[in-house]
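Good morning N.,

You mentioned wanting to compare the apo and holo forms, so I went ahead and generated the holo version with adenosine-5'-diphosphate. This is what I fed in:
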Amino acid sequence: MKSIYFLGECMVELRVLDGATMGQSYAGDVYNSAVYLKRCFTDIATSIVTAIGQDKLSDKMLSCFKNENINTQFVFRHNSKVPGLYLIDTDAQGERSFTYWRSDAAARKIVDFLDDDVITQLGAGDMLFFSGISLAVIEESAREQFWIRLEQLKAAGVKVVFDPNYRARLWQSEDQAKQQFERALRFSDVTLPGVEDLTVLYGIDSAQQVIDFCQSFGIAEIVVKNGPESVITFVQGQLTAHHITPVTNVVDTTSAGDAFNGVYLGARLSGRSISDAVQLAATAAGTVIQHPGAIAPRDEFKKVMLAAGI
Ligand code: ADP
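and this is what came out, ligand included:
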């Protein structure tokens, strides 16, 4: 059985439904990707590597992972911290705003739990995914240790996948983010960047520039998400532009990139070609954006993906 780890943070999501009522669920980029991968590729062991608390919401978050058939063996429980939380509010014009309470989240402590035993267990896996957001939430004092642990996993044969998604507010400075991103890219076997994430940090504004930039780190498989029209890949010296079908009924683009990442990696682990994997990933992302919130309804999502040939 193939296996993949998604390392990072899952948060409690609150959504204002009307003046007096809120809906509550769970979301976070690595969690979203794990959900969509597992829904499509049931025979890939899919784990989240994170830290949560001992509180009731953490219990429910864990149940939510299990309910999506995600392996929780590497979900660690911090003694005193609790999960991060965010609120989505929508104004009268339909414009969404996000407020976060995550600066003291349990997930920031994940590296504390990655001891030698855990690393030995993780070393048996096929792939580890982390993102620019995962990196940003790891406490600054623990980052050196994170790189040591990642090196050990890579040496054990785990393929490293990085999505350099950039959230300015999570970093102290652009220079700090750049330094960490470049370290991550040097470790990466696969990268799944969007064009926009590298624009602020590097002034990069085209897919070709993203490819050139990632190539300079010697990454074997580069997959550039280039908005509604195309995905560009560069693998074994071959540059390919994959046409995708734009969706006109866009309801909410939250987690489009996450769904793309999860399904792309699941397809690749299942032995699909690059172009098949891109098409399946684009279909998943194109479906997710037609539903509100990060996680689309399971049955509907699976129906579309079955029709697409998962
Ligand atoms: P994110 O900012 O979440 O990374 P992107 O805008 O890069 O999201 O989109 C990720 C993927 O979602 C794209 O590569 C594409 O496959 C799909 N996607 C996004 N917008 C559209 C759209 N309007 N129509 C079809 N697919 C889309």
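The chain is about 40% helix and 25% strand.

Happy to go through it together on a call whenever suits you.

Best,
F.
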